[in-house]
Design brief:
33 strands, alpha/beta
Length: 653
């Protein structure tokens, strides 16, 4: 086991203060109607309520002239709750009835008069205007050509940069509108476009977990990385919807066809989402829909339902520890700022294929990204068969992290923020302007470790001919414009690399591109001696340069990753972590710092079996604070579909 001092020093180095504008910890549920809102406050599920749009059927309280959004706001204020009000669903200015199967939709929009009325009632209380599923609407419209015509101004782009600028421009337009009306837009971004929310100027964004959306751990990777990169705040709302149902324990109180006992996502799924998000740094955590939260008590009153009990238990613990949590940085996956990639098999297969900004096709570089993400989050993308059989809760909604958690950052990150990560792996296609080249130079020179592919350096060749940094001649100088590639099915590791020992890896057919080693040391070759992996010392850091095209097979569907590089990324990630986690599988984890304390969250996704986890690197005073488990000799058994949270004192050195 590694020495605890390394973890302590790393945690002490994290920023402990985010600024005076930081919101308090906000936790709560969703409700319409004075009695429902009051019940949530009295039953102790938190200090926050989401007031939904009137398209939400609530069964026990109608939407009419006597039960309006403004009445709900008054009820929230009377119960001393902070709140958000759904102001719209989707992008554009036209109402578009329908659903995902019709190519995206929008719900009713609150008017300026309604927003100004809410602001007058709210006063100085913390509140937001919730813009629901804004990137999902962009995606759902974009994948259906006929429905792009409903908001043509948003779909005129032909490039990835154009797609990003269109989406971020729309977010910026809407944010400014609601600012002028006296409210603050809280955009819900639930695909892989979270960074665009901060880039468009939103101080806080909110993700949506579960429903039929990308894997929880994948979204959290974007959120952790984006929060660090842009210095923004974020939250999550957790949706109970699954296969068209939501859970309840009282169908008499909630006579809605889609609310049924045993339906929707389980309370165990909610528990995992709450703790994974909180330890990842979320400051706002709420749930969707009221039937999972409240049941009748048999005497005309309320008691907590399955999700309500889980939410109250979480609030009971988190409210005792309301300080911000800074997740410990390990691996950063760096993607292009205009990447725009989204996974497939979403919304009961409404998106069968991966896509880019909804409208654009994927290419080889996107398959590199999704392929190696699948190595970091096995099964995250779901399979067609699992979705059709509805066996996609795990993996699919959750995924193990065999090499530890990671953050996803964008290529416009500053060198200062990038320097917080001991390891950076570049995945996908990359525009390499001089500014990014300078950022990577600063990062490596300052002690960072970078893994990059030779093909990622050829998008803007004249800007990145930097033999001192890369350790090779890329063949782009005068008279040296070679473009040769080679063929092989073997990778021979000649010298140790990270934790890998010399040996031979048999691979699908692949094509390394030609480079000429300068200061770079050749670690691995193909069967004819052409460089496959090189290592170059630069300043205090190290560059690993791979030469097989995007580290994939060379033909066919071009989706298979090369096993050698999967192993390399795994071992590099392990070296980056001060904590050593050894488990039987099915486990994801997140480490963080809260004040003077270190935190380690262990999550078991297996439905029936406990998982034994050995922890090296936590403090001598580590103790189990959440979960039915005991830590003995650095070993803990995590129950099925449950969490265990360890806490210990690190001090500030």
């Amino acid at each position: 086991m590694r020495n605890v001092s390394k973890l302590v020093l790393l945690m002490v180095g994290l920023l402990a203060v985010r600024g005076s504008a930081e919101p308090p910890l906000l936790v709560g549920g969703c409700a319409h109607g004075e009695r429902n809102i009051q019940a949530l406050a009295e039953l102790g599920v938190g200090n926050f309520v989401w007031i939904p749009a009137s398209v939400y059927a609530t069964a026990n309280v109608p939407w009419d002239d006597e039960h309006t959004v403004l009445d709900d706001v008054r009820a929230a204020v009377a119960s001393d709750l902070h709140f958000m009000v759904s102001v719209r669903r989707g992008i554009g200015d036209e109402l578009r009835p329908g659903g995902y199967q019709y190519g995206g939709h929008s719900d009713e929009f609150l008017t300026r008069e309604q927003v100004e009325g809410i602001a007058a009632v709210a006063g100085d209380r913390l509140w937001w205007l919730h813009g629901e599923e804004m990137d999902a609407d962009m995606h759902q419209q974009g994948i259906r050509p006929s429905f792009r015509t409903r908001t043509p101004e948003l779909f005129r782009y032909q490039t990835r940069e154009g797609g990003r600028l269109s989406f971020e421009g729309e977010l910026r337009r809407l944010r400014r509108r609601y600012d002028q009306w006296g409210g603050q837009l809280l955009p819900n971004l639930c695909m892989t476009y979270h960074h665009s929310g901060w880039r468009a100027g939103s101080p806080m964004i909110i993700a949506e977990l579960l429903e039929h959306l990308p894997t929880t751990e994948l979204q959290l990777a974007y959120l952790r990385g984006g929060a660090r990169q842009f210095g923004g705040e974020w939250g999550v709302w957790v949706s109970p919807w699954w296969i068209g149902k939501i859970p309840t324990e009282d169908v008499d109180m909630w006579p809605i066809g889609y609310a049924e006992e045993g339906g929707g996502h389980s309370s165990a799924s909610l528990r995992r989402c709450l703790y994974l998000s909180w330890v990842s740094g979320a400051r706002l955590l709420c749930t969707q829909d009221t039937p999972p939260l409240l049941s009748g008590d048999g005497e005309g009153g309320f008691e907590l339902g399955p999700w309500g009990r889980e939410l109250a238990a979480f609030w009971g613990y988190a409210n005792q520890h309301p300080e911000p949590i800074e997740p410990v940085p390990g691996l950063a996956v760096l993607v292009d700022k205009s990447n725009g990639w989204c996974p497939a098999h979403l919304g009961i297969n409404w998106a069968l294929e991966e896509s880019v900004w909804g409208k654009l096709p994927t290419d080889r570089t996107d398959r590199m990204l999704s392929g190696y993400l699948d190595a970091l989050l096995p099964g995250f993308g779901r399979t067609f068969e699992a979705v059709e059989a509805r066996e996609d809760v795990y993996p699919g909604y959750f995924a193990a992290t065999p090499h530890g958690p990671f953050d996803i950052v964008s290529s416009d990150i500053s060198s200062m923020e990038l320097s917080r990560y001991p390891l950076v792996v570049v995945l996908g296609g990359l525009e390499m302007p001089p500014s990014l080249n300078a950022t990577l130079r600063d990062y490596v020179s300052g002690g960072g470790t970078l893994l990059i592919n030779a093909l990622q350096l050829r998008w803007r060749e004249a800007w990145v001919d930097d033999p001192e940094l890369w350790g090779v001649d890329l063949g782009i100088g005068e008279g040296d414009n070679w473009t040769r590639i080679f063929s092989s099915t073997e990778i021979h590791l000649r010298k140790p690399a990270a934790g890998l020992e010399p040996g031979v890896w048999t691979e699908p057919w692949f094509a390394p591109v030609e480079v000429v080693a300068g200061s770079g040391e050749v670690l691995a070759e193909d069967h004819e001696g052409h460089p496959v992996l090189l290592r170059n010392a630069f300043g205090e850091g190290t560059v690993y340069l791979s030469t097989p095209e995007f580290m994939q097979e060379g033909w066919g569907p071009q989706e298979a990753t090369l096993g050698f590089f999967e192993d390399l990324i795994g071992d590099l990630s392990a070296e980056a972590w001060p904590i050593v986690i050894e488990s039987e599988g099915d486990v994801s984890w997140v480490a963080g710092r809260q004040g003077d304390d270190g935190l380690l969250l262990l999550v078991n996704h297996h439905q029936r079996e406990a998982r034994s986890v050995r922890v090296g690197g936590s403090g001598d005073d580590a103790r189990v604070e959440v979960g039915d488990a005991t830590l003995q000799q650095a070993k803990v058994d995590v129950p099925p579909e449950d969490v265990v949270l360890l806490r210990w004192t690190t001090g500030r050195g």
